[in-house]
Amino acid sequence: MFRVIAIKKIRRLLNSNIPNEIIEGAYKAGETADEQYVPLLLKNAADGREGTSLQFALLTVYSEKMFALERILHVSPPHPFWKIKTPPDSVNIKFYSALWQKMNRRK
């Protein structure tokens, strides 16, 4: 029961329009290492909005989604994304999108 509630909360956060909520959802998704969140993490992955709360200050939606994808898929993207205020990098987004498609073809 708790797991179902946690899954619904993470999905709600990732589908939010509020940067702090998306960042929190990406963080929690990365902690679970569950591949079910990959499509939601790839959705609008180029979102460069920053967190506005003290908890998420200096983080962007993009950087937190990249971090979560790295944790879930166990593969680092070609370019660094973890520096403060790193702008969204289409190479990294395309890398994870292609990797995810390749992984799903094998299933």
Summarize the structure.
The protein has 107 residues and is mainly α.
Summarize this structure as a short list of keywords or feature phrases.
58% helix, single chain, 107 residues, mainly alpha
Number of strands: 0
Give the termini distance in whole angstroms.
28 Å
Largest sheet: none
Strand content: under 5%
What does this protein look like?
This protein has 107 residues and is mainly alpha-helical. The protein has one domain.
Task: Set down the secondary structure blueprint.
Blueprint: H1 2-14, H2 19-32, H3 38-42, H4 61-73, H5 90-106
Helix pairs in contact: 1-2, 2-4
